[in-house]
Amino acid sequence: MRQGLRLPPSAPSSPSHGVCCRSPYWPACSGHAARCALISLAGANVATGALVGCLLVSIIVTPVVDRLHLPFAALGFSAVVSMIPGFLLFQAASAVVEVVSLGTRAPVTLLTSIAANGATAFLVILAMTFGLILPRMLLEGHS
Prior knowledge:
The chain starts with 12 loop residues before the first helix and ends with a helix. Helix 3 (about 45-70) packs antiparallel against helix 4 (about 70-80) and helix 5 (about 85-100) runs antiparallel to helix 6 (about 110-140). The longest helix is centred in the C-terminal third of the chain and has 32 residues, at about 110-140. The chain has helices at about 15-20, 25-40, 45-70, 70-80, 85-100, 110-140. It has about 140 residues and is an all-alpha fold.
């Protein structure tokens, strides 16, 4: 039996965010499409998908902002904001609140979910940071 393409829940939010912020949404669409393709088709993890998506966005946006004299943060961040792992952060925060309320009766699985969600969110944010900054640093002044 053939399975269909599974997209992350945030897939529809990328182009809509660019439209709402009145920024060009094609960098966001291309970065998010690369992220979704890596995760869904190649089986990559979320952090790797975010890294490649942000690299692509940064490579596209850097020459545009240099030529038009626009702030990189405005276009770059608006294109990748939908990749921020908010769900993982909220899951970890919710589990922390539950541990605090349960005290010593908190199950070990709750602690492992805090560690797993927190570590994954941290790695995604780190990958996004490097994905946006490295191409900008390397391409700055070459366009």
